[in-house]
Design a protein that fits this description.
about 80 residues, mainly alpha
Length: about 80
């Protein structure tokens, strides 16, 4: 949330790793997930405090770094055929 990631940092990421990296941006704001596997993954992290229902989460909570990083991950996922 405090720096832009580089595309080179995503090199070698699997589809699942991309999915988790992208959703970590939301998880760090306390977003809850409807996908049980993703929810279980973040529930296992000591820093995660689920406070916002998925349907109540606002993209406005993301700062410029987070928005750009999410967009870069999505772009990478598309290039790799993950999305």
């Amino acid at each position: 949330d405090s720096r832009y990631i580089k595309k080179s940092e995503l090199t070698g990421f699997t589809e699942e790793e991309c999915r988790l990296a992208r959703n970590e941006i939301y998880a760090r704001h306390g977003r809850k997930f409807q996908d049980k596997a993703i929810q279980a993954y973040f529930d296992a992290r000591d820093w995660y405090t689920p406070t916002i229902e998925a349907e109540d989460f606002s993209e406005a909570l993301l700062n410029a770094y987070e928005t750009a990083n999410r967009n870069l991950i999505v772009q990478y996922e598309k290039e790799k055929g993950y999305r």
